[in-house]
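Quick one: co-fold with 1,3-dihydroxyacetonephosphate.
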Amino acid sequence: MRKPMVAGNWKMNGLRANLSEVAAIDQAAAKANCDVILCVPATLISQLALKAKNIFIGGQTCHNEASGAHTGDISAEMLQDTGAQYVILGHSERRIDHAEKDESIQQKVLVAWQFGLKAIVCIGETLDQRDSKITLGVIGKQLLNSIPDSVSGENLVIAYEPIWAIGTGLTPTTDQISEVHNFIRVSLEHRFGDQLGHSINILYGGSMNGKNVVEISAIPNVDGGLVGGASLKAQNFIPIIESIG
Ligand code: 13P
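Sure, here it is.
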């Protein structure tokens, strides 16, 4: 049985003062039927670790090597050392801002696993790709090339985030979400076997909020959400936590 999850992605937002949001989120997480994860800027992880009793903690990227001469980068081991259990990898903003490719994302997943982190791997199409009716091809290629063969099930979460839905207030129709999530499920089962493929959580991300969460999370093979803007404030994030699971 998959346990649903909701992960907040604070992106490049949040100072120490914003951790005041955490106490209420932590209380909601204690009562929730889903796992709650907060992926905060790396600068806040150790402070969040002191406050979060019921929340899992995540980073937002790591380098594809374990350590070395990479000024300004952060390693999986550093994230783990400072209190993270998860890391988001291959977010479209990193694919765009830092030219991350599937192959280096796969290396990042491996190094994350090496240091005991669970990887939340993001995939999703642009609006052009959707309009050109190549969404499933794009998703299939991202899945194949950014996920290593050595999946255990426990150590991987997939997040489907259509790029055109991120931060725009636009969301796909339930049919569109359903089509992609079912495709991801079948692809995972085909590649890793029914049992393992069935056990991997598939999250939806892109303008999820307290209003659309019930409809989206009711779609089969949607196992929760990856939430950006609406995760920054407890009053917006808590209704999402309460609706999932
Ligand atoms: P928004 O919820 O702000 O659209 O962001 C989604 C996202 O990119 C989460 O990783």
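If it helps, The chain is about 40% helix and 15% strand.
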